[in-house]
Structures are given as structure tokens and as C-alpha cells.
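Structure, all two chains, one model.
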Amino acid sequence: MKISRDWLQTYFEKPLPEAQALADALTFHAFEIESITTYDVVMPLDSVLDVKITPNRGHDCLSHRGIAKELSAILNVPMKADSLHGGDTISIIPKTNAVKVHVEDSKLCPRFTGALIQGIKVGPSPEWLRVALESVGQKSINNIVDATNYIMFDIGQPLHAFDVSKIKDHKLEVKRTKKEEQFVALDDKGYALPKGTLVIADNEHALSIAGIKGGKPTGIDEATTDIFLEAANWDGVTIRKTSQVLKLRTDASDRFQQVISPELAVYGLRAAADLIVELAGGKIVDFVDEYPKSQEKRTVSVSTEKVNKVLGTKLADADVADVFTRLDLLFMQKGSEFTVDVPFERLDLVIPEDLIEEVARIVGYDKISATELPKFSRKPEVNPSFYAAEEAREELVAKGYSEVFTSVFAEEGERAVLNKVGGEKPYLRTTLVDGLKEACERNTRNRDLLGLKEVKLFEIGAVWKNGKEVVMLGTADSQGVRETTLPISGDTISRYEELPTSVTEHYQPFSRYPSITRDVSLWVPVKTDPEEVLALIREGAGELLVHSELFDTFAKGEKQSLAFRLVFQSFDRTLTDDDASTRMESVYVALKHKGFEIR
Amino acid sequence: MHPISSLIREANRIFFSMGFTLVDSPLLESDWYNFGGLNFPDDHPARDMQDTFFMKDEPGYLLRTHTSAAQVRYPEMQLKTGIQPPYRAVSIGKVFRNEATDMTHEAEFYQIEGLAIGGDVTLANLKGTLTRFFREIFDGSSAEVRFRPSFFPFTEPSVEVDMRITGPSAPEKLRDRWIEIGGAGMMHPNVIRNGGLDPNKYQGFAFGCGIDRIAILKWGIDDIRLMHSADLRFINQF
């Protein structure tokens, strides 16, 4: 989520550190930072952090208030005020039923709050609001929509404003659609809502896709004077499924699918209603609050001993108490036993280990020492199938075979995957043969380059046939491609710890362009060292020569014949025959110069 | 030899010397061992963290997205033969992610998972174990491990793991720099319970990291797909 430093500053008296320092604080104590952007022209000096909120903190941290709370704990700086705690109880009076709301199933909509505001004037937003929204990548639309968006990015409660004059009979129903229904969203895009989609409707049509997106027909326009402001709480799984089916993700659905507290709704409603009245005038004439079952209050307990036992630390009771205080978690302490009253928005705090994590990250993971495990009380077991694979590997490598890994996906097979990106080769292979055959063919094209007389490959890998997953051993060479099940012997193991590993230090990038092979044969005096001739050839051939070897020799009286194979390749282009011929001319010149006779 | 096979061999040797047993686990896995047993709730956004290949006409089955099934499978297997903790195990093998491939992404790659369960296995032990593993596998004269907060459904607390290798034989590009290398944490009590153990008696750590990633870092490989290319211009360099 995009978090503006200027926006965060509204939560603190003291000036916050620079963006990089905020990023570091969050990185080592809360969340990863994807990027930092600093604006110079549009929003002078503001910096925006793109914070990767983990799924366990989607409940409270998809908001500036949530991140401010984190920073307050990490940096140990008090917040000016917390919009969710420590203030007066939120009042939503009067409730006159001017707009009637019926919730069909409170499991899907645990809370529905709303406010009827009359006599507003829709217009552009003030500068501060436009700047705030633009800083986090949002477009300013009008003062009403902007106010609802601002509150969502501020405290995490999504809201939606309806034009009341367009709601039939001033009655709203939260229900699943009885049949497929066409729906035009605020952004003019059309959606076919399948039967059973959770919506807010009047007695004729769906007016909004619950928790995801509002509809065009009841949208706010310049003529709107009376609005119904909705701040509801929705079942996360339902929102997630609808969002997936419609392929429609919004800032609202992102928050609801992570599940937010129903307690939050009223804070969002009150804040947005007050902001709207401030920006657009009008009067709040009615509130709605359908909330049949309040969220239960929860306590979680942990002891300092337990914290230290899990983390391997030696923290004191005071250290643990300090963390809870900084996080503004109210607690009772009896010796080293802490019982925390979990704030309503912290739906992630459920078991003692959750509190241990809070202690660990706020104290800092750098305080955890690196302590090796003690010697194990038993001897570890050798894995027979891995051992068999290692044996086979050693034997084949000694015979000049190279190991390859090919894809498990195939054109045909017994079992397939459902949802492969691109859709090609959805089957799981029933044999290693096809992959090896193809690998063999591809490598054979590079045989000269590789300096191999014969391409010899093997693969040890799983196949799926006759309803089972089996590990096979496949080989490919000039004799053909074969496979057998990997033979697993019951023998005890002798060499687990002595097997060699690669001693290569660096990988050398190689050219992906085709190579050209040329041979040269020549007569030289019998006593001539082929290595000297090869050195001469290499010098003459220049840097396009990537592989060269002596491949044939025979003697005839005082003379011997030497035949060399030369492979040319470029890193940045496909070589032509002319390129190779030019290089070969240089080779011939160099050889003739030495008095050798080209055959 | 193939760089992945070389690393698996070396990783196994290092962990074997620390008392870890290598365990087998299927590639075509059930939803329970890959997700449910690891404390992923049904229809939860945490499942979006990994793009999964689901099996056609076999509801509840998939290609494993990680080697973490060992966290439930290994204790279960041990208990069947009457062996109580402490346990130390590694699971190494191919895992799958349903995504488009490029220089840094492969749909099929290799992962190592390690776990230690006992009465008093701590997060500090996790740091110590990983420090030794990275030092040895990257030929460093010393290694440091740094944790950053993270979230995985199967661990609590959860951390991202960074390492820093020093010493003349460490790969030059890696030397003295913090590098992101894996994810880890203390096994969630629900996972301990799903393996058949009492979380009031036992606790443990678990970690996972990519073998391909280790290869890329160790040898300066510029494209993860080379590992699975069956191209001897690459493989025969090792």
C-alpha cells in the first residue's frame, strides 16, 4: 500500500525522520518496502513508501493510521491521537429509519452502518485533499467521493456514497441476487452478476456489488443533494470469491477479503460523514446501524518465560512490558504473566505465539543470537532412494554422461493440471524418454562446440503412470534412449559423506548464436608437436574460435597427417560462411608460412 | 555434474552432519499437506501468495508449491514407527509455481526445507543452523544471518532470511553484502498439532530456501532457466 510521509505526519507532533529512515524502521520491524518515491514538483518534498502489508496485517495496516501506529511503536514516539482509540465514544444518533436497511444474512454482512446526509453541494475537493489522494496514486473525483476514499486510506474502512434520490422508496436490501443480473459500475464498465452475488439492492436492482464496487445509476453527480453514506462489514471469503469470479479487484475488496473488524465501520462512517459536512455542507439527519452480534472482546496471555523459550533470548519482564506499551496494547501483568486486551482491529492477535512475534519484531530480530543446535541425540538416517540416485549419478558421470533436468510437463499423459499459464503441455509426463530424446537432439547440434564425440545424457526424475508417482532413471546416447525404475538396494551406505561436488568457481556465459565448424588437415614432419600446430591455428583463427581440437592423426614415412576441428561462434551475431572462410584463410596463411602443407 | 545435484549433495551433507535426516515427499501433493495442514485457511488471501497448479479432475490435489509438507509428513511418519521428538529433517526437491517464466522465474525449481522439533528448539537455534549452512555452502570463512519480519501461515513468528558471507573464498559478488535468501520461522502450534504432536510439549523451527537461488548466487548464473534447460553448454561447466 502507498503510504505518504506527509499523511503519516498528521499523526505525530514531532517531525518524523526522513523517508529512508522510516523505510528501514518498517523493514526491520514490520513490513517490506517495495519502493520509495520522492515528489519534487507536485507535492513538494513528500515521499511515498510502497509498503508490502502481509496478509496477517491486512486487518489493520492497510491504512495510514495502522502504519503510524507501527512507527509509533518502532520509533518509540507517541501519536498525537489515535482515531480508533483513546477518544470519546463514537455517536451515531439520531436513528430515525428515514432510510430502511434490511440485511438478509448477517453472516455475510456482520454489520451495516449508514448515514443520510441532506443538502450537500457536490464540488471539487480542497487542495489538501487532492494532494493527499494524488500522493497515494488516487485521482480526485469530487468532494464526496474523495472524502470516502480519504477515510479508507486513512483508517482502513471502505465506504460508499449513494445518491438517495435514485434509491427507490429509500429502502435498501443486502441480499444475494436471485438470478443473473446486468450491472453497470461507477466507471461505466458492465458486469454480468451471477445468481447468488452479494449485493446492496433496492426492490428492483442491484445498486452496488457488496464490498467491491458501486453502481452507476445511484452514483453521485453534480446535481446530487442528498446522499446515503454506507460503511459496512462483509464476509471476507464471500468478497474474495465474488472478486475472483468477476475478475474485479478494488481497494475496498482488498480490505474486506483480508477481513476487517465490524467495530471499524462506525469509526469510518462518523469520520467520513463529518468530513463530508465540512467539505460539502449539508446535515446528517439519520443513522443506520444493523449490528446484531457484536465482536467479542479477546484477551491473549503470554509469560516472559514462554517468550524466552521460543526466541532463545534472555528478555526481562520489563522488556516485554515495554513492547506492549509501545504498541499501545493494554495489559495486566502478574509477575511475568501478561494478559493483553486485544484492540478490536488487531484480528491477528489470537495465540501466545502472536504476542511473541510482537515482542521479537519490536525488540528487534538482531537481538536474537545465532546458537547452533546441540549435538543430536540420534544418528540421522540415510535416505535409501536418495542414496540410490547418488550411486547411479556417480556411475553415469564416471562413464561420461551428463545429468539433465527436463520439464515434468508433456503433450500427453494420464493426469493433467487444470490451470497452466499459456495452456501448453498440461499433462504430467509418463516417461523420461521424450524429454531426454529432445534434449539429446538439441545438444547434438552443439556437439562440435562441446567437443563431444557423442552426446550422453541421463535424468533421474519423477513420472506419473498407472496412477502412481515413480522415480525413473533414463539415459540417452548413440544407442538410443532407455529408462528403468531407479533401483533401490537395501544395503547400508558407505559413501554419503565422501561424494564429490562441483569445484567450478564461476559460471561462464556462453553465446546463444549458432556456431560454424570447419576442419583443416595438413602434412607436417613426423617430429612436429601437434600442440604447437594447434597454438599456431588458434593465433591465426582469432577470437571467434571457441573450440578447437586435434581429431585425427596418421603417419606416412617422414610425414604425419594432422586433422583439426575448429568451431567459430560470435557472442553478438550469427556468423556467415564468409566469416568462417575469412578466419580459415588466416589459418592457412599462418600454417603455410611455417612451411606446412595443407591437404 | 549438474549444479543443482551438486548443491543438493552438499546441502544434504551439511545437514546430515548436524543430525538432519533427508526425507522423501511426493511432488503431486494433497491440498492438506501443501496448504490445510500448514495452517492455510480455505479461501484465504494467503493462498494467493503462491500460484498453484491444481490437478484436473482430481479435486484436492495439486503440484506442491513448496517442500514444506515435510513439517506435517515427517512427524506423522516418525510417530507411526513409535519415534518421539526430537526430530531433525530436511526435504529437498522440485516445486512448482504456475507463472510465466523469465530470467528470474521458473515454473519448476528446487527447494530445501529444514525443520527441527523438540522441547527447547528456539529461534536462536534457527539462526545458528542457517549461519552454519550458508557459511559452508558458500565457502565463506564466516557468515551472518539477519531476520526481517514476515508472514507465513505455517510459522509464528515468521521471518525473511538475509545472509552476509565474508572471507576470500566466498564468491566475489556476494562477499560482504546482505542477500535475501529464504523464509523461516517457528512452526505454528497448529502445524505441530497437525503432525500429531502436542504443541504444549514441543516447538520447532522450519525454513525454506531455493536451491536454484543458491546456485545463481554461488556461481553468478544469469538466468534461472539454464538450470532446467538440459543444455550441456551450461551443465558441463560444473
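The longest helix of chain A spans residues 264-280.
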